Amino acid sequence: MVRVLHIFHNMGNGGIEHFVMDFYRHIDRNKVQFDFLTSVDEKGYFDDEIQKLGGKLYRAYPLKKNPIKNYLDIIRVVRENKYNIVHRHTGSAFGYYDLRAARRGGAKNLILHSHNPQVGKPILHFISEKLLKIDCIPVACSKEAGEFLFGKNVKVKIINNAIDCDKYEYNADIRRQIREELGVVDSFVVGHIGRFEEQKNHKKLLEIFSEILKIKPNSKLICVGSGKLMEERKEQAKELDLSDRILFLGNRDDVEKVIQAFDVFVFPSLYEGFSITQIEIQVNGLAVFTSENKVPSSSNISGNVQFIPLEESAKVWAENIMETNLDRDYYAIDTVKKAGYDIHNVANELGKYYQELDWKE
Known about the structure:
Elements: E1 2-7, H1 15-26, E2 32-38, H2 47-52, E3 57-59, H3 67-80, E4 85-90, H4 95-104, E5 109-114, H5 122-131, E6 137-140, H6 143-150, E7 157-158, H7 172-182, E8 188-193, H8 202-215, E9 219-224, H9 230-239, E10 246-250, H10 255-258, E11 264-267, H11 276-283, E12 288-291, E13 305-308, H12 314-322, H13 332-338, H14 343-359
Parallel strand pairs: 1-2, 1-4, 2-3, 4-5, 5-6, 6-7, 8-9, 8-11, 9-10, 11-12, 12-13
Helix pairs in contact: 1-14, 3-4, 8-12
């Protein structure tokens, strides 16, 4: 059996973590096992499930407290457990730091997996790229994310952000049930899923929703996710007199059901790699409105994604949304599957890839 060590700074409830866990659930675990290493003290969101699936968990000394101890811990974990393949998931060049430690620990196959086409901390990214860069296997979720981290002249392996498409297919019965549960039976529902972090741009989202309400007064906004900016956005909702029109649901384990309640999905992110949520929404047949030049154009798999410049006013966004035919596309799931985003096929390919790497040892 091949054991692959996946390294995250923190194994939280974000899109990248969900991506890896979905592959873990669907990969042939008789042939490939995933183990996880993080650099924080706190328990990870998926820790219990990882252990149930047979994975091992390691916590290096917290990076922010002592980078040297953290580095030495990574070396020790890789060396003691004889990992040949180490897969580092990252949004910046700082991921090279962990791979340097993994190489010192004896790992021969180092994978750096780019998940974003830009970063929240450009200075750290720039310094890391100059000082920490080492030879590794370049992997990305999209062409844009690959070019950002590795450059345009590097051949990058693209691993599609595949999902379990059948899980997100439109279901009229579930839609009826969840809309009753959430109290939005007679409402036009604007949906959003994402951490309350600057990247997701909830501030703009609320401004857009305020303008949608002027056009369609029976509208409600459903926000799924949590994060450090949630209280700020709740205060903003009060200032815009929207508190009774917005449902802040926090983290949910039934996102595939909540999506059924949506009538449209609005996603004004400051940047994205290749949003898994956006794929889930497209499978469900919904129209998506997202940020032009900030979200990869290739993420429009179903043909139902519209890109609007972030510089445009909230009013322009709202008018674009409400002037569009928002009828569900019930055949979108077939389009997404044919494009290569069904987890069953992609997980099988990834499993074979790991085995090929291990044989090269």
